[in-house]
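Hey,
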Amino acid sequence: MKNIVISALVLFFAVSSANASQKSGCELAQVGAVEVSWTGYKTQKKVGVGGVFDSVVYTPVAKSGENFRSILVGSSVVIDTSSVNSKHEDRDGKLAKFFFGMMSEKNVNAKIVDIKADKRVKDAPRTGVVSVEIEMNGVKKTVPMTYSFSDDIFEAKGTIDILDFSAGDALSSINKACFDLHEGKTWSEAGIAFKTKIEAILCNVKPLKE
């Protein structure tokens, strides 16, 4: 009888351990750097001009986790605005001096504070909204950004208004410096985006069906 009880307990713990392993499924891990990009607009026709920042210091909240929330929410970046790169040297010099140079701080700080997934659609990219707290020119604003995840690439896009960050002087400054090229119109609206590579790791077991 004693041996039967011991055997039953061993079987119970073995099954419990197997189920626990199955529930954990794969882990997600960010691989490589985070690319931060932007789009500004000029002229009455709202012509877009885009670029990136070459110097972005990313601090992840965790190296890996079971879902997007565990590896993204709490992660932050520090963006050196003098590293603005639109692949046009003269333009980049003007942006660094007459726009970002007019702000109270050289860096832009951003932190992911929340993420909400849309309802899953079979055979379609995962989508949702990620909330990012942005601090620029001494002002903090939380900005919603729509994200998509497909082929290991997580990409989020959003829109900000420069005037929301008390940067009217910076906007006027760059409009004046580029008056002819912008035909007298520089928009306060700007597009922002970031992307990073996220891979599934430790997938030796199949997760239980939801």
